[in-house]
Write a structure and sequence with these properties.
Helix content: 10-25%
CATH class of the largest domain: Alpha Beta
Mean pLDDT: 97
Number of domains: 2
Oligomer: single chain
Strand order of the largest sheet: 1-2-3-4-6-7-8-17
Number of strands: 17
Order of helices and strands: EEHEEEHEEEEEEHEEEHEEE
Largest sheet: 8 strands, mixed, barrel
């Protein structure tokens, strides 16, 4: 039996599993099995965790399809919330979490304000790297966007259409093609953004290794970078996804981005 905790950040859900509990399993196969929505527990990914000190830990992420990923912003925030509850943390306390993209420091902003076992967290997301880029889709359309690294890869497209369509196609279809495009040999997360006003954007997300998701921490961060750098928006920026709202605070090029938002525990249990 595998003990787990299930948590979510704006509907982006993860299982937290101890490294020691998973030591006899292939992580990719285990992630696929546990994340299956109909035959498993169901989640967008598994964060394999070990404590490294007081309020400090290490995580390794596998997506729902079993693939390893450098980092999930929402997954990291879920783990930070789980750690905070285990440590009986209070506002102002910090959780230090080593990820495949480096150290992330998550500061507890409030405990329980949004419901039982809910934590508001401000997380350092690293210094974004970004540049304009064009991708040519099948059939010839050229899609201009912004390539962003938040420690993991993103391609962000700005649209005006309320349905988030791109070149006359659904955002899901375009997201899937760009995610698996030959220009991105390691695949890419894809975000489609629509500017609401200078301090708010809406996004849709096609996540590498998962597909369409309700939210994404690194995706919200990448979209905020593109919106502020190239589309007239300013920080702090509200990023509205189908699963909820996060706030990106980014001073600009060469500076770390901070992302604030909720995380909450859903369930604990054991799985075969």
């Amino acid at each position: 039996m595998i003990p787990f905790t299930k948590a979510h950040a704006c509907g982006n859900d993860f299982l937290i599993v101890g490294e020691e509990d998973a030591k006899d399993f292939d992580r990719a196969e285990l992630a696929r099995r546990l994340c299956a929505r109909s035959t498993g527990v169901g989640a967008d990914g598994v964060e394999f965790f070990r404590w490294t000190g007081i309020c400090a830990g290490h995580i390794a992420l596998h997506n729902a399809d079993g693939s390893a990923a450098e980092i999930s912003g929402n997954g990291t925030r879920c783990v930070a919330a789980w750690m905070a509850l285990r440590m009986d943390a209070r506002a102002g306390d910090e959780m230090r979490i080593e990820t495949g993209a480096g150290l992330r420091i998550c500061r507890i902003e409030s405990v329980g304000a949004a419901g039982v076992n809910a934590i508001e967290i401000g997380a350092g997301m690293g210094v974004p790297q970004y540049a304009p880029r064009t991708v040519i889709l099948s059939g010839g359309p050229r899609i201009s966007g912004t390539e962003v690294s938040m420690g993991n890869p993103h391609f962000v497209i700005a649209v005006k259409d309320a349905e988030f369509s791109v070149a006359g196609r659904s955002w899901q279809s375009v997201g899937e093609e760009i995610c698996n495009h030959p220009d991105f040999p390691h695949r890419s997360n894809v975000e489609i953004l629509r500017v609401v006003n200078r301090q708010e954007i809406e996004i849709r997300i096609f996540e590498r290794g998962v597909g369409p998701t309700l939210s994404s921490g690194t995706g919200a961060s990448a979209a905020a970078v593109a919106a502020i750098a190239f589309h007239g928006c300013q920080s702090p920026l509200r990023v509205v996804a189908p699963g909820g709202v996060q706030t990106a605070d980014w001073p600009g090029a060469g500076k770390e981005l901070k992302l604030s938002g909720p995380a909450a525990m859903i369930a604990v249990g054991e799985a075969w």
